[in-house]
Sequence to fold (226 residues):
Amino acid sequence: DQQVKQNSPSLSVQEGRISILNCDYTNSMFDYFLWYKKYPAEGPTFLISISSIKDKNEDGRFTVFLNKSAKHLSLHIVPSQPGDSAVYFCAASKHAGNNRKLIWGLGTSLAVNP
Amino acid sequence: NAGVTQTPKFRVLKTGQSMTLLCAQDMNHEYMYWYRQDPGMGLRLIHYSVGEGTTAKGEVPDGYNVSRLKKQNFLLGLESAAPSQTSVYFCASTGTGSYEQYFGPGTRLTVT
Fold:
């Protein structure tokens, strides 16, 4: 049972436009959410995160929005650049417990076209 | 500061052979994780460790063993490799008080 869902396997966007990647979760105990970016033949790299006590977190061109009532978060990239072309993973964690495990979505492949 | 390193980067095994993948981190992190990534399956947790001398099973532990004898190292072993273990393996670590996991570059393993 997929607790973190990224329903769009792929997304194509023109350079300079906004990219919006979506993520839904089912477990209301999740209280911390992260986005990772992965290029081919490399390990995932942390991009941005948000705690459940916030509804928005911004870092440069990247903004994550959290809607707890809808159990939905989204990553906005503005403006999109060709170097943003990668697979983006959404992940979630629960504060309870001491293992710091992350529950991962299956990823969305973003292509930013020049 | 190398972060998280993995050895080897590539390996081809025959069915039934054994091998050990090494993960090392120089960030003094308490928590370490082994994942496998297969097409369309995302990242699946194999085993993890919450500190030196501890290990625990993740989502897909069968066919793998791990050891964490030193805080900086986390070893993943395949005792008898099977074609179903063909995958890309990633190691990650995180520190106390953080959820951000730092990943190694991955090991691409093919079992024929």
Notes: Chain B touches chain A through 25 residues (CB under 8 Å). The radius of gyration of chain B is 13 Å. The mean pLDDT of chain B is 95.
